Description:
By secondary structure, the chain is of the alpha/beta class. It has helices spanning 18-25, 42-53, 67-78, 114-118, 139-148, and strands at 3-7, 29-31, 60-66, 86-94, 100-101, 104-105, 126-130, 154-155. A 6-stranded parallel β-sheet has the order 2-1-3-4-7-8. Helix 1 (18-25) links the parallel strand 1 (3-7) and strand 2.
Amino acid sequence: MIDTVIVPGVAGSEAHHWQSWLETQLMSCCRVQQNDWNHPVLHEWIEQFVHTVAPIEGAVQIVAHSFGCLTTMAALHLHPELNRNIKNVVLVAPANPIRFGDNGFARDSQNNYAEFFQQIRPLVPTSMLISENDPWLAFTDAKQLAHAWQIEPINLGAVGHINVASGFGPFPQIFDYLISENTMSHISITDDGKYFFKFAI
């Protein structure tokens, strides 16, 4: 069995969001909760991420969206001990780090996180699903961010921010990038060589 942790972005993932739909499709799944979904202060969101992920003893995969992708990448970078049990990270439509700073949104801060996120390198298998017309991260910027993270991005086409506003409720394609819950029952979480990750290009 593998535990799936859902990491929503700003405003959370409402009932009709694909992340909420995904939770209903999985046997072992939880989501990171934030104290204020409309105030994305990175260090506070990281704290909640760690609070959710650290107690899980078995294999874990992360499914993040928007600012949740930035939270995930920053948390795993700043808390490398969490990477031990994480077998798969799926980043869907990351938000642009330049739009955020120490006080939440960059417009309310004296800085932005562009440089910080350029320095991050994932330590676990990670896939990144991007859109050609995402209002939260331009296509060119998405490719540059993926290059910095050393990830081959997966272009889903002109699908907006991959959220309810762009037509996403159920999102069965996400299973192409997840480890099956049944797969892990036959695999030791310490033996990474016995299974493979599917990356579409």
